[in-house]
Amino acid sequence: MEEITSFEQFKLNKQLLTAIADAGYTHPTPIQQKAIPAIDAGHDIFGIAQTGTGKTAAFLLPILMKIKYAQGDSPRAIILTPTRELAMQIDEHISLLGKNTDIRHTAIYGGVGMKAQVEKVKVGLDILVATPGRLMDVYFTGELYLRNIQIMVLDEADKMMDMGFMPQIRKLLEILPRKRQNLLFSATLPEKVVKLSEEFLEFPTHIAITPQATPVDTVTQILYHVPNLRTKINLLCELLLDEEEFRKVIIFCRTRINAENIYKYLDRKVTNSVKVIHANKQQSTRINAIDEFKNNDIRILVATDVASRGIDISLVSHVINFDIPIVYEDYVHRIGRTGRAYNKGTAISFCNKAEEYHIAKIEALIRMPIPVTPLPQSLEITDTPFDERQAMLMEIDKQKKKENPNFKGAFHDNKQELKRKALRQQQRKANRPKKGRMID
Ligand code: AMP
Q1: Spatial CB neighbours of 290, under 8 Å, sequence gap ≥ 6
Q2: Fewest Cβ atoms closer than 10 Å to its Cβ: which of 2, 66, 258, 307?
Q3: What ligand 1 atom has the least distance to the C-alpha of 7?
Q4: Cα distance between residue 87 and residue 108, in whole Å
Q5: Pocket test for ligand 1, best of 29, 90, 155, 216 (most atoms within 8 A of CB)
């Protein structure tokens, strides 16, 4: 097959080629080289590709080519995504690439009122981007006609399944016309995605851009072993003080509480050029924070995995994993926020003793060790408080038990030992002669 080095080699019209040039894309990325001709030829696609590879344009360009111009009232293409942020981002991408066409499109997602979205759908549209739950809600208002769908995309299928969207997707498949083209994209390849692909795709063209869950190679990975939470915070602050190096940073946290606390701490002690996004934040607040970060109005974004999934923010200088994700694929997604398209980036992970287990699993998944860097000399390393140490020990015991169900565990032994000690003390007390009694 002829090697594809320019967009002109695809069957794309002038409107699209101009938009591509205006977007600053000079040559197609590997996934675009492979997916665009296959989609154009009408094949179903099973694509394994991470965000940052250019996969959105890889499916949008042939869709825009197929849809061509505004026609009728109901959508002819539907793109399903796991999160509202991703839905909005894809919708923006359609605006960017379809700007010289009259194609109508919108994104519908949960977390905001449904009325305005139903109104947008009623006006008539050609491409619909949606999260599965909200799509079904809007469908059941009776205002959305889906029998004209010719092409359907399931983006980030792995995340969609993790988030429990399977029932909605099944329901949707019953509603859509049988004769349609299906495109399925996933960053990783768990068994359940393979099953879904078998159920849903017909003789698909397989496109795997990177081996399963391999981080993009423009990302430098660094691992710090940090003993406790307090020292993690000290390290974070120390790193962030270097504003020149840490120009645009996303800090990932496992929980909303951690994200909120870190945000507040940084805002108070380091810089107010920081915002936080997590599922408890209002949708508008989240959108504003992402926009401000994108526009370089703020330097730092603190985020949880769900809230940040799929967000396209280019030129992020650093991703900091304040804690190690326990859904290991999330590591790949997190560090995919940096080194996007053709830019370099650094991903730094903070790992305590109880997280080493997860690092080993992540290293197995990405099939490479994450290089360890010593803590900076200047860093203030604090003692680990008793409660935190106990929690970590307990966690480590749990992990060891998971690996070996017969394992009794250090913490377990400690507990037993404490119990035995308490018992011995009680016995000694009981045996002690009572005061005021005469001994025979
Ligand atoms: P995606 O993997 O779809 O999330 O895309 C990642 C980033 O790459 C986005 O910011 C796109 O705008 C950008 N991009 C997509 N295709 C190209 C291309 N051919 N050349 C340069 N950048 C691209």
Answers
A1: 85, 277, 301, 311, 313
A2: 2
A3: 19
A4: 7
A5: 29
Residues ≥6 apart with Cβ < 8 Å to 345: 218, 219, 220, 316, 317, 318, 319, 335, 337, 338, 339
Tokens read off for 326: 């326990």
This prediction has a pTM of 0.60
Residues with CB under 6 A from ligand 1: 25, 28-29, 32, 51-57, 312, 314, 340-341
- Nearest-atom number in ligand 1 for the CA of 52 is 2
For residues 279 and 256, the answer to whether their CB atoms sit within 8 Å is yes
Question: How many angstroms does the Cα of residue 19 sit away from the middle of ligand 1?
Answer: 13
* pLDDT per residue as tens digits for the range 34-90: 999 999 999 999 999 877 778 999 999 999 999 999 999 999 999 999 998 899 999
Give the Å distance between the CA of 92 and the centre of ligand 1. Answer: 13
Domains contained in the chain, CATH given: 7-208 (3.40.50.300), 219-382 (3.40.50.300)
- Taking CA atoms only, the protein residue closest to ligand 1 atom 11 is 54
Q: By C-alpha distance, which of 127, 131, 135 is closest to 61?
A: 127
Residue range 82-115, pLDDT digits in tens:
998 899 999 999 999 999 999 999 999 998 999 9
